[in-house]
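User: I'm preparing a small set of examples for a lab meeting where we compare how different chains pack in three dimensions. I only have the primary sequence for this one, and I'd like the structure in token form so I can line it up with the others. Please keep the answer compact; I'll paste it straight into my notes.
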Amino acid sequence: MSVDLVVLDDARAAARHAGALLAQAAAEGGHVALSGGTTPGAAHGAAAALQPDWSGVEVWWGDERCVPPDDERSNYALARRTLLDALRAQPTAVHRIRGELDPEEAACEYDAALRGIRLRLNLLGIGPDGHTASLFPHAPGLQERERLAIAAEPGPEPRVMRVTMTPPMLANADTVLFLVTGESKSEAVALAFGGVASAATPASLVRSAGGRTLVVLDRAAAALLG
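Assistant: Understood. Below is the structure token output for the 226-residue chain.
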């Protein structure tokens, strides 16, 4: 499946571009999934400035750490600080993964909520090891085809259990948008978007089903792409 690449000068420009795409999705309405991490946080801020009315949107998360919603490690807490608190009009619904629950209970609850949902836009990042959402290299969850959300083992840091969308749900979007910046991600980017799909690089396995896969990079992250 084809991937569209956008390479910009630096991380700030990449975050602004992704933020503009988030803002466009918010203006159009529907279901939008957010991601954790510093770079997506910058995109959230850009999106809120461009489109402060999210009243036509239902918000989801690609994954969450199993921590309370006010924990600094929570992806929900990041989105609240960088996006939700800056909006003039809040989303119609905020579908938080309840990380304070037992991981399997939270995953079952989220799986049920996701049934029948098609995302307009799914914002994802990539780790230096090639993981995306909370699907790490060679994780059993990469083979999941029935469930839409599962409990996942901890990644490198922080060492806490997680809940993540599975590959079928991550792909169930009109636009799958990867936002990746920094030299530390360049090898993972080359493998995910310039190599062969492999469970060793989970991001290489996630592409929009019936829609568009767009990768927004800064020059450092794109350095090893042919």
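A couple of notes for your slides: Strands lie at 4-8, 30-34, 57-61, 63-65, 93-94, 119-124, 149-152, 162-165, 173-180, 212-218. The chain has a mean pLDDT of 96.

User: Perfect, thanks.
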